[in-house]
Design goal:
The structure is a homodimer of 378-residue chains.
Chain A lengths: L2 H7 L3 E2 L11 H6 L4 E5 L2 E6 L3 H10 L2 E4 L5 E5 L3 H8 L12 E3 L2 E2 L5 E3 L2 E6 L2 E5 L5 H11 L5 E3 L4 E6 L3 H9 L11 E6 L2 E6 L8 E6 L5 H11 L6 E3 L3 H6 L36 H9 L4 E8 L12 E5 L2 E12 L4 E9 L7 E6 L2 E8 L5
Parallel strand pairs in A: 4-16
Antiparallel strand pairs in A: 2-3, 4-12, 5-10, 5-11, 6-9, 7-8, 9-10, 12-15, 13-14, 14-15, 17-20, 17-22, 18-19, 18-21, 19-20, 21-22
């Protein structure tokens, strides 16, 4: 097999080491036949069970259960927890109630995106940032210590399991009761099932609807996994994973995959989560973001639709986007779309380029023609 | 195959995503037949080429070349670079000259180890922390910004390639000239070969001696890899990787693998790299480390020698260590030692336990008897 094919299919093993952590659902997902994994926040996350198209349609039409324990929690607890939470995100948290979650992008002192977590407010003095793939414990501890805050930053024993798809509500109601049907999007409640403590939230990294069970005792991983599996049987639930195709179709951002070390939130369509009237002396990133907002934007995020009819496979690299032979941006992901029946991807690209423009992608030595499009695709 | 065997052998693929970065040597190592990888600092690092025993003996008796580009550089540059470098490490840097490197453990404000990089002083206002597997860019930027320092924290285009083993010096001298033979341990020089700019250091993550070539232009990865491969032919060089067995025999620490989120440097034998007379108001971690040093230590790091004669395989988990049925610590790694002809590993264990004590390890449902030993083994 040619080297590039090997590389793009990830056909090599992951060497065991305690630097990498298996999730409480690890054994259960192996028993389900997980065929590939990624490393996310130093944890193993299954990415496929060997039947990508079947996994995709189950998410779109039915219900799927995912090990997303790698969405690890950064807990802030103590007198200054609320103050620190607000300092760490560029989104205004004043309207966030106990029991509510908010998508809360984080920036550094230069206004660069450093994570895009979901914040859960468990109490006035207790918050979880459910994080994307970068180390926010170090970041939060550095800020808290340097500012002399009274807050403990730690990782609680919490492991999310996602139940996603249009039939997710039936499964979750079958387990927890009909009250879950009235739970609003991005709200949550602490509850328990068969002695297993958890936080139940209406959330998840897909646009197909669903819930996340934040398991609060890692010993019960297999038990919770199987309990969901059994309750979901009548809706044909099966093991899946955050779906590469669905998330691209839906325009969901992957921090670190679709962003680089100088991406600001405006470049990746997060404008509505940035509150520039937050106090700039306090909240990290607000001052530079005001300047950035006031100046001419350099890059933005668009979709790309390809002419190629053979399914394109993702890769570990960004690929240059050319217009009239000049590099104008990067293709940050790509996939075959089962609903659109064509190849699609995200472009992080010069603001000179607009939806409708024709471009070329340099991928594995070939130039692939494509057209820019608005996001989301669906 | 039983699930645990699958898990411990890492027999599943790594899903491609631009969240994970291939190194400039990636194609070259695939061409060499890399069979397993790990993710380290969000990069793919080959861990084996399918012949573990052969790779081991080549490191012990000959010379081996490794893709260690994942030892990424955190560059500090500017007026306050030196001041920030000292604030970030608990080792006194006053004696560090330009052209010299120092093993420089980093702690947080609680005295917990957060990385154990090698610091290279390139100029009075330019330093590289060549880091272990945790995000130090965020950490360094948080501290620099909160203290108002004039320093730029970035990642330069630098990718280390290690040449390790008793014959490494011959290979490096054949490429760069005999001057390399006089280069002292942990000193380096900026140089170039066939137009490829690099920093050449006498360093590397083994106790078999050798060099690291810090490639300063990622475009030349394959060229540098092949240049070393060809120059090393007469000494039978081949592709290898940081060697799991050799590093355990030699007592080398793996940050994040052998340490956890509350490990201090004294617990993992780093006492001699901690300078408690550094100013506690300035250098992060010194104040708590003074208290920790003055109080009774809780854990320390020892070796374990096992009675089991069948080679033990590493795992993604720590394993409990019992003495008289009570948990006294954790086994953080294990390996079959080719030189000792027995299984060995590291214990992070109560200071009540001493070398010579008999213990039991709980691993995959079995109790394996072992004896504590001093580190290093060899």
């Amino acid at each position: 097999m040619p080297i590039r094919a090997v590389a793009s299919r990830g056909l090599f093993g992951i060497a065991p080491s305690a630097r990498l952590r298996p999730s409480p659902y690890f054994e259960a997902t192996l028993a389900e036949g997980a065929t590939s994994f990624t490393i996310y926040n130093h944890m193993l996350m299954p990415t496929s069970f060997g039947k990508p198209e079947e996994e995709y349609w189950r998410l779109i039409r039915g219900v799927s259960q995912w090990d997303v324990a790698c969405e690890r929690q950064v807990e802030l607890r103590g007198k200054d927890a609320g103050r620190l939470a607000q300092i760490l995100t560029v989104r205004d948290l004043r309207s966030c109630a106990v029991g509510q979650a908010k998508y809360a992008p984080m920036c550094n002192h230069a206004g660069t995106l450093i994570n895009d977590p979901v914040l859960l407010k468990l109490a006035e003095d207790r918050y979880w940032f459910s994080i994307a793939d970068s180390n926010i414990w170090f970041w939060a501890r550095a800020i808290a210590a340097e500012r002399g805050f009274q807050v403990n930053v730690s990782e609680p024993d919490v492991s999310p399991l996602a139940i996603q798809g249009p039939k997710a509500e039936h499964v979750v109601a079958a387990i927890f009761g009909d009250w879950v049907r009235t739970l609003r999007y991005f709200w949550f409640r602490e509850t328990a099932i068969e002695g297993i403590p958890l936080v139940l939230a209406r959330s998840g990294w897909s646009k197909q609807g669903g819930f996340e069970l934040f398991l609060m005792d890692g010993q019960h991983g297999a038990k919770l996994w199987n309990l969901v599996r059994e309750a979901g049987q009548q809706w044909d639930i099966a093991a899946g994973a955050p779906n590469w195709c669905e998330r691209i179709e839906s325009g969901l951002l992957s921090y670190g995959g679709d962003s680089d070390d100088h991406t600001n939130p405006f470049e990746v369509r997060l404008d509505k989560y940035v509150d520039l009237d937050l106090p700039e002396d306090e909240v990290i990133g607000i001052r530079p973001l005001r300047y950035i907002r006031a100046s001419r934007p350099q890059r933005h995020q668009l979709g790309v639709v390809f002419e190629a009819t053979e399914p394109m496979v993702p890769d570990f690299l960004w690929h240059p986007i050319l217009r009239d032979t000049r590099k104008v941006g990067d293709l940050t992901n790509c996939t075959w779309s089962y609903r659109l029946n064509q190849n699609i991807g995200f472009a992080l690209i010069s603001t000179e380029c607009l939806a409708g423009d024709t471009v070329e992608i340099l991928k594995q030595g070939r130039k692939i023609p494509g057209k820019l499009a608005e996001l989301p695709f669906i």
